[in-house]
Each structure stands twice: as structure tokens, then as C-alpha cells.
Specification:
binds adenosine-5'-triphosphate; ATP-binding; transport; Rossmann fold; 9 helices; ABC transporter ATP-binding protein; about 35% helix; alpha/beta; nucleotide-binding; 10 strands; about 260 residues; 6-stranded mixed sheet
């Protein structure tokens, strides 16, 4: 049995009257490519923010390779890389400078940081834009630059919140291959996504979160249970949308 890379124990978070996360437990083994899926407002971003030391939980513990994220934040953060949903970058740096700077912040010597930055930019198809300012990057380019910055110190665990949003299919494939290789070397990925086809394709395990609770978790095959992941998701979460009653004006040509 492989060691547990991400251990989440009894995680809770409330915002005012809203119970955003209501007692989450997870154990993700090293070398897993894990997906966290759920409808809008289910608690994915809140959970990932707590796991990565950005948002303090009301209750619960998160261990990364046995290091407690909230008791030893410096130790835990050395082990992780994070690509948040809303990427904030140093806009006045070029892509190459950004990655190199991320490497330097992680204590990597300048020459090595520059070498890794160039390699990552190349794999992420950003090499032609390496000298352009990040401020001028498109949404997808920003995601890729953020991913490069999160990988430069070769973290044991990589957390990504909606990593492929705004990324074109060719770049998405490059990212998929990069992450698969990363996981193949024994590192661990946990990412949140709405894109079931992507999760089904790349993840070996998946957890479905709804209203702050994990409602299904296991290997992708276990959760799918003979269905597509999309169908499993719909079956488990249920269809909550109204059928459009009261929208009789919508689509009608009369005013
Ligand atoms: N800072 C905050 N203050 C108040 N409520 C918040 C805050 N952050 C999140 N919430 C609420 O907590 C719940 C979970 O939000 P969260 O962003 O974690 O969901 P999500 O699963 O990431 O959703 P989406 O798929 O739409 O990004 C939502 O009801 C949201 O309105």
C-alpha cells in the first residue's frame, strides 16, 4: 500500500450562516491523480483553499506527507504547488522572469531556476512568449504560466482549481501529458473540475462533493459504477434545475 500524500480529517468551514464545508474526510495516496468534482457552490474552492493553507478551517486537520498544513505551514507549503482558480500573477514580469522568480522564492539557485523555467515554458508552449509581460497574456496563457510557477520546485503534491478553464485543446493536451508524467514519477495531483470527460480520462480516483459533503469517493471505476462519470454525477447530485416554468417569455417571439 502506498503512503497517504493528502490526508483530510473532519474539515469544516462556515461563512456566516452558510456551511460551505461540512465534515470532509479524504485520504489520497501518493502517485494518485485525483479529481474533486461538484456543482457550483458545492465547496470545492473552499476545501482546496483550506488544504493549501490559504483559508483557516473552523475544524479539522490536513496533512501533506504527514506534515500538518496549519501547525507547520512553512513545512507543508514547501511540499505543495498550487494553481488557484483566480490566478494572480506578477503582471510586470515577463513569463520567463515569473517562473524564474517563483523558483528563486522556493530557494532554487538562479542558474537552475532559469534552466527549469525555460524547460517548463517550452513544454507549456509559452517559449515564443517568454519575453512578453504577463500583463499581456491571455487567460489560458496565464493558467499555463501559473502552472509552470507551481511546478518549478518539483512539489510532492500539486493542487489545481479548474486548471483547464480558458485553455485551448492543444495546450490542454500538453498540460494533461505534463501532469500525467508528474504523477507517474510518484507525485500527487488533486484538482477540481466541472469537466467530467476530463476527470474520467485522467483521474484514477475521484470524489464528488455536494453541499459541503463528500457524497461519493473511490477509484474512478468505483464511482462510475458502470455509468459515465457524467451520469454518475447527475444520479448522485440530482437534477435541481427548475424546468423553466415561469419563463414562458423566453424564446417566444411575442414581446
Ligand atoms: N468568502 C466567502 N464568504 C461567504 N461565502 C462564501 C465565501 N466563499 C465561499 N462562500 C460560499 O461557500 C459555498 C461554497 O463555495 P465554493 O467557492 O467553495 O464552491 P465551489 O464548489 O468552488 O463552486 P464553483 O464550482 O461555483 O466554483 C458557496 O455557497 C459560496 O457562496
Amino acid at each position: 500500500m502506498r503512503a497517504v500524500a493528502i490526508s483530510v480529517q473532519g474539515l469544516w468551514k462556515r461563512f456566516g450562516t452558510k456551511q460551505a464545508v461540512a465534515g470532509i474526510d479524504l485520504a489520497i495516496e501518493a502517485g494518485s491523480f485525483a479529481g474533486l468534482v461538484g456543482p457550483n457552490g458545492a465547496g470545492k474552492t473552499t476545501s482546496l483553499s483550506m488544504m493549501t493553507g490559504l483559508l483557516r478551517p473552523d475544524f479539522g486537520r490536513i496533512l501533506i506527507n504527514g506534515v500538518d498544513v496549519w501547525a507547520d505551514p512553512v513545512g507543508a507549503k514547501a511540499l505543495i504547488g498550487v494553481v488557484p482558480a483566480e490566478v494572480r500573477l506578477f503582471e510586470r514580469l515577463s513569463g520567463a522572469e515569473l517562473l524564474e522568480y517563483a523558483g528563486r522564492l522556493r530557494g532554487i539557485p538562479a542558474i537552475e531556476a532559469r534552466r527549469r523555467a525555460a524547460q517548463l515554458l517550452d513544454v507549456l508552449d509559452l517559449a515564443p512568449d517568454a519575453r512578453r509581460l504577463v500583463a499581456d497574456y491571455s487567460t489560458g496563457m496565464r493558467k499555463k504560466a501559473a502552472l509552470g510557477s507551481a511546478l518549478i520546485h518539483n512539489p510532492a503534491v500539486l493542487f489545481l482549481d479548474e486548471p483547464l478553464e480558458g485553455v485551448d485543446p492543444v495546450s490542454a493536451e500538453a498540460i494533461r501529458r505534463l501532469l500525467t508524467r508528474f504523477v507517474g514519477s510518484g507525485s500527487t495531483v488533486l484538482f477540481s473540475s466541472h469537466v467530467m470527460e476530463l476527470v474520467e480520462q485522467v483521474c484514477d480516483r475521484v470524489s464528488i462533493i455536494d453541499q459541503g459533503r463528500i457524497i461519493a469517493s473511490g477509484t474512478t471505476d468505483e464511482v462510475r459504477n458502470g455509468r459515465t462519470l457524467h451520469q454518475a454525477f447527475i444520479d448522485l447530485v440530482g437534477v435541481r434545475a427548475h424546468d423553466g416554468e415561469g419563463l414562458s417569455w423566453l424564446g417566444s417571439s411575442s414581446v
